[in-house]
Amino acid sequence: MDAADVTQDLTHVLFTADEVAGRIAEMAGQIDADYEGREVLLIGVLNGAVMVMSDLSRAMKSHLTMDWMAISSYGSGTKSSGVVRILKDLTTDISGKHVLIVEDIVDTGLTLSYLVQNLRSRGPETIEVAAMFRKPEAMTAPVDVKYVGFDIPNEFVVGYGLDYAGRYRNLRDVGTLAPHVYGG
Ligand code: 5GP
Ligand code: MG
Ligand code: MG
């Protein structure tokens, strides 16, 4: 059995599990206050947003519902192109609802910009975005992310839902991978 400890592959921890949890609690409080008296529909973007969705929704005190979408963004290597394919659509009708898209990370914002446009055409009452992480390049496509967990440097990070080749989503801390992981 491969008993390798995934936490050993992080070379630099940017945010510990405690720091992530603390920020999630603050974001939840802000969202609760902003939506006071209005029921929000959280839309999680699979697979990366699973952890954020799980923690953020449970840190919130308001009534809420959840739905999920899976999208694939065509791109070469680590860059997304903004050409997006819906792999799994919502199961609910969002017209007239207060929609809050829950994302793991916004890099160029191209994926998100497509998603917001697509969902807006379905007639929600309001639509906003919460993202756990945002990179500096997030200006490429001008998407307004109302709730940002942390602004991070332009580095490839893993953990807390974020993967490298499908792995490392289960890391509680968020950080950068050691060079040996990339086949060095
Ligand atoms: P965008 O369209 O904003 O450029 O790309 C967003 C998507 O790219 C994210 O949902 C995520 O899947 C992936 N991504 C962007 N930056 C990172 C990163 O630092 N680490 C990981 N694991 N995925 C990233
Ligand atoms: Mg995502
Ligand atoms: Mg990924």
TrEMBL record:
Pathway: Purine metabolism; IMP biosynthesis via salvage pathway; IMP from hypoxanthine: step 1/1; Purine metabolism; GMP biosynthesis via salvage pathway; GMP from guanine: step 1/1. The keyword Metal-binding applies. It is found in: Cytoplasm. Keywords: Cytoplasm, Glycosyltransferase, Magnesium, Metal-binding, Nucleotide-binding, Purine salvage, Transferase. It catalyses: GMP + diphosphate = guanine + 5-phospho-alpha-D-ribose 1-diphosphate; IMP + diphosphate = hypoxanthine + 5-phospho-alpha-D-ribose 1-diphosphate. Its main location: cytoplasm. Pfam families: Pribosyltran. GO terms for molecular function: glycosyltransferase activity. SUPFAM superfamilies: PRTase-like (SSF53271). Residues 20-164 form the Phosphoribosyltransferase domain. Its EC number is 2.4.2.8. PANTHER family: HYPOXANTHINE PHOSPHORIBOSYLTRANSFERASE, HYPOXANTHINE-GUANINE PHOSPHORIBOSYLTRANSFERASE. Belongs to the purine/pyrimidine phosphoribosyltransferase family. This is Hypoxanthine phosphoribosyltransferase. It comes from Luteococcus peritonei. The gene is hpt.
